[in-house]
Design goal:
two-stranded antiparallel ribbon; 37% helix; 8-stranded parallel β-sheet; 338 residues; alpha/beta
């Protein structure tokens, strides 16, 4: 994690120009589930690395969610970069946004709910800058993201499934009210939290994907992948299950297991392969994310494919070409169309 910074510090070195918006803002004609049934759909990449590339300092407990208050234009610009690179799904800046985290900054529940809604609007406006279908997925990060101490990569917080459900439900309610096309239950470290999240999303009528963070062929908490992916059995609202925020090498087996166990489309968006050095406060090692490997993921059942930390717009553009989601002029195709 980055060291905490003062809430009075400017979050970014420059302010982006306002992105032109095509009015009215469009929503896709089809559900994400229908699109996945037609073929691969391209996710975006890491929001934080794109924001840093735009000059934003994210060394704060709220991480990218701080910019919902201090720099919403930066978030919209980052989403726009991915949309123009060919991403067909934009994931909102809500990963680290929680009522509890905002409360520590003196932000009340009504204002926090508005910030959740803003995260969806910013992605929707960015989606409107391209002439094709782009879905907006509201990010729902794990409980550990709110703690900002790395526990999202360990799980096992000492809370019951019921307690975790009570934590997640108010945020999910606020995000659902903002009208996203889907909910992204992402970077989930263990099956207890996955069960809690699946309970919390019931009744909202939104497509959901469930994505675990894994290491060494197990969840971060050490559970078998077969058990983890099996939780979505019989859940019609879950349109994809898989992994994110993991080493690309760990994604290979996880995709196969997710497809075999769940019988559903698989979602996969690993990190670049670089490793965060907490003592040196920087990324170390060489990237190992090979866009060419996405073909193997697709052959194994992956339908929702993209990148997580340190995977940027250039890589997403390359994926668009390799997966056949891009036309000759570089614009992403609508799944199912020639």
């Amino acid at each position: 994690m980055h060291p905490a910074r003062s809430a009075d510090d400017p979050p970014c070195r420059h302010t982006p120009e306002r992105t032109p918006v095509h009015e009215p803002v469009r929503t896709p004609a089809r559900t994400l589930g229908r699109a996945l049934a037609a073929g691969p759909v391209l996710l975006d990449g890491g929001l934080s690395n794109q924001l840093e590339a735009q000059g934003c300092d994210l060394s704060d407990a709220l991480w990218s969610a701080r910019l919902l208050t201090d720099g919403p234009g930066q978030i919209e610009a980052a989403h726009t970069a991915y949309a123009r690179a060919g991403a067909q799904v934009l994931t909102t800046a809500g990963y680290q946004a929680t009522f509890e985290g905002f409360a520590r900054r003196g932000i009340g529940r009504a204002e926090a709910a508005e910030l959740f809604a803003r995260s969806v609007r910013l992605a929707r406006r960015a989606a409107g800058t391209v002439e094709r279908e782009v879905w907006v997925a509201a990010s729902v990060g794990p409980y550990g993201a709110m703690l900002a101490d790395g526990s999202e990569y360990r799980g096992r917080y000492g809370l019951s499934v019921r307690e975790l459900e009570r934590f997640h439900r108010p945020r999910i309610e606020a995000l659902a009210a903002a009208g996203p096309d889907a909910l992204a239950l992402e970077t989930v470290p263990d099956t207890d939290e996955a069960e809690a999240l699946l309970r919390a999303v019931e009744g909202y009528g939104l497509p959901v994907w469930l994505s675990y963070s894994v290491a060494g062929g197990r969840t971060r908490a050490g559970q078998r992948l077969e058990t983890a992916f099996g939780l979505v059995s019989g859940r019609d609202d879950v349109v994809a299950v898989g992994v994110n925020c993991c080493d690309p090498a760990d994604a290979d087996r996880a995709v196969r297991v997710a497809a075999e166990v769940s019988g559903k489309p698989v979602v996969v968006y690993p990190n670049s392969g670089e490793r965060w050095d907490a003592e040196g406060h920087g990324w170390v090692g060489a990237p190992t994310f090979d866009p060419g490997g996405a073909r193997a993921w697709s052959d194994a059942g992956a339908r929702l494919i993209g990148g997580c930390c340190r995977v940027g717009p250039d890589t997403i553009a390359e994926l668009a070409g390799l997966l056949g989601t891009a036309t000759a002029d570089g614009h992403a195709k609508i799944p199912g169309e020639g």
